[in-house]
Amino acid sequence: MPMPVEVRPLQQRDLAGLLALYAQLIEGDLPLSPALAETRFGEILKREGLTVFGGFVDGVLASTCVLIVVPNLTRGGMSYAFIENVVTDGAHRRTGLGRQTVKTAINAAFGAGCYTVRLQTGGTRPGTLDFYRSCGFDLTKHGLEVRRIPPR
After folding, report:
1. Alpha carbon of 57 to those of 23, 93, 104: distances in Å?
2. Residue 138's pLDDT is what?
3. Model's pTM, two decimal places?
4. DSSP secondary structure of the chain
5. In terms of DSSP bridges, do strands 117-119 and 5-9 run parallel, antiparallel, or are they unpaired?
């Protein structure tokens, strides 16, 4: 029998599960104190145009992604969106849950009037690009960035 799956925007009570997923996203990430995590997540939840989606299996958070909708003055004023911090718990990969979570975010972006949804990945696992293609993404542009991450 299939497990009950729900994809929804996260709430403050979901923070511990989100942090557990993020530990799988960036191994050895910079430390984040519990107090700062609570503060930052509260800020994220209040920010207009920013939604953290979570995919739940039997009530347990097992996948997530962040949707950022940006107001725009080109394309007739249509907004654009970015998806970031995509991760699915290792035990739930290749089940369709990650795809369902990302597609929920894409649908929310188009529902908000966005003309495009963009995503960059630094993922090196085999199949990462295939996963994003299965969500509807195409390699159409070049991604560039300037980084300033302090040493650990």
Report:
1. 19, 12, 15
2. 93
3. 0.92
4. -PPPEEEEE--GGGHHHHHHHHHHHSTTPPP--HHHHHHHHHHHHHSTTEEEEEEEETTEEEEEEEEEEE--SSGGG--EEEEEEEEE-GGGTTSSHHHHHHHHHHHHHHHTT-S-EEE-----STTHHHHHHHTT----S-----------
5. unpaired
